[in-house]
Amino acid sequence: MNEERRQTIVKEIDYWSRSKLLPQQYCDFLLNLYVDPDQEEDPKRRQASSRGIGKAVMAASQASGKQWLLTFGFFTLISLVVLYFNAFHPLLQIGVVAAAVVISLIISQRVRKRNEATGLVIGGVGMLLMLGAGMYILKFHGIEDWYWQASLLGFCAVFWIVYGISARIHILHLCGWVASLLVYAWLLSRLTDSPAWYGIQLYWLPLSGLFGWASWFVHQWSKPVSAVLFVTCALVWFMPELYAMMFTMETDWLQLQLLIKIALGGVLLFTMRKKWIVWVA
């Protein structure tokens, strides 16, 4: 059949489908007859796109005046907040950010019931907004002392841990512990004067043991929380080498230390495999 004629027939069938002139199963049957196999997906995508646009147009045409007013008022309010945010009082700025975070979390919880990935993305945006907007407010008002920034990061870490456990968002729970480790490393870099390699190990290894014990202690109530604590334990095990690389100049034996830690970690995981697998599985 002539390609031009084939395309004309396909467009006509597509029009019948959109206009409901024929039942959908008949239109699909005719499309399967006339559509080129190499281009079979195009009409389907075009049909799905037209359906989505049609639903949007129908929803807009059936919206009441009150709904139009609320929609434009909402976007106008957001525009005003963004444009005049710097002119707000600091307490009002904090309130606006807190309200935005709470709204994003509420929307995230509702969307997660229908689409888990989309809901997590919305919640993640809210969490990043908390940290990013907080840092922006501190910098805008000239509060650039490290302890204020560390306090903000510590607050976010605690909030992420608590909310991650309560909402069963395990990646957020883990991010909270990672942020708390960054705060701990920040404090060590500010409050200690170039400790030796064994001192750095003593700062971190007992903490790794504490997380390992917490993973064992919690596993009888919540396996996901226990798994997050176990992963955090593994991260803290290698934190001395990462801390030495970032904050100290003594990196001569860093590669050897890392190899020894990897070997010891592998031996511990192998010898205790029957125990820690029960904690996290």
Automatic annotation (TrEMBL):
Keywords: Membrane, Transmembrane, Transmembrane helix. The keyword S-adenosyl-L-methionine does not apply. It comes from the Bacteria. The chain crosses the membrane at residues 68-85, 91-108, 120-140, 146-163, 170-188, 200-218, 225-247, 253-272. The keyword Membrane applies. Coiled coil: none annotated. This is DUF2157 domain-containing protein. It comes from Paenibacillus sp. BIHB 4019.
